[in-house]
Design brief:
Elements lengths: L1 E5 L8 H14 L4 E5 L6 H5 L5 E3 L11 E8 L2 E6 L12 H8 L2 H6 L2 E5 L6 H9 L2 E6 L3 H19 L7 E6 L7 H14 L12 H8 L4 H4 L4 H14 L1
Parallel strand pairs: 1-6, 1-7, 2-5, 2-6, 7-8
Antiparallel strand pairs: 3-4, 4-5
Helix pairs in contact: 1-10, 3-5
Length: 244
């Protein structure tokens, strides 16, 4: 079972958009998906609500129980946590082992093929727990100079933690998001990422698309809102890359 954590300490980097659309894309490919929302704003459900979500009691105890109210079934292959936004600002009992042990439990492994984790844009116990639990870490970022600096710092921190076996992830990749190929600066930064990290460490780019924002406004993944849009196409290609 894969545990994929999507993380960036900067806000506005399409973390939640990526988690929601990966969940739907994986589910369409026949994978059973559990989505863990560790951002106390609880925005994951904004992207899944229109699918129809009902509480479920067959997955066992909640991870970091004070953080969530329930586990919801959003489709036949997608389950997601519902964040308790009144209590999720507290960090009590959030340890690096709590979430990892839950992901490794027999109950979770029996139910799911993939666990997707959305993270807050801060260096917090929630972020550290998500990175510790991950088998795969994805860092979404727009190809701009300041974003590149943040990516480099997070990559270095993750690599050091992986080398010290604090993190168990074996895959650490960058996801270019909100990419505009007609912008010279974007093309230059992307080229720099390919040269610096290698093409195998940079995932298929997600182009800027208003349909991605419109889909969230309708509480849907882009596949369910605009299946022929560039956003749906790009996330389809990303799912293929990650599943393959």
């Amino acid at each position: 079972m894969k545990v994929i954590t999507v993380a960036n300490r900067k806000g506005g980097t399409a973390k939640t958009t990526t988690v929601v659309n990966l969940a739907y894309g994986f589910a369409q490919a026949g994978k059973r998906v559990m989505v863990i929302d560790l951002d106390n704003q609880g925005h994951v459900m904004h992207g899944l609500k229109a699918l129809g979500c009902a509480p479920q009691n067959d997955i066992g105890e909640l991870p970091i129980s004070h953080f969530f109210t329930s586990i919801l079934k959003c489709s036949e292959n997608i389950y997601a946590t519902d964040v308790d936004t009144n209590k999720a600002n507290t960090n009590d009992n959030v340890t690096m082992d709590t979430l990892r042990n839950w992901c490794d439990s027999d109950c979770v492994r029996r139910h799911f093929d993939v666990v997707l984790i959305d993270t807050p844009p801060t260096l917090s116990p929630q972020l550290m727990a998500a990175l510790s639990a991950a088998t795969d870490i994805i860092i979404p970022a727009t190809p701009l100079p300041l974003a590149s600096d943040g990516v480099q710092k997070l990559l270095t921190a993750c690599r050091n933690a992986m080398a010290q076996r604090k993190f168990r992830a074996t895959k650490l990749t960058i996801l270019p998001v909100m990419v505009e190929q007609n912008l010279k600066l974007h093309r230059q930064e992307l080229s720099g990422w390919y040269e610096r990290y290698g093409r195998n460490k940079v995932l298929v780019p997600i182009r800027k698309s208003i349909k991605l924002a419109e889909a969230f406004a309708q509480n849907k993944p882009v596949f369910a809102y605009a299946p022929n849009s560039r956003g749906a196409h790009d996330y389809t290609e990303l799912c293929k890359q990650l599943i393959g």
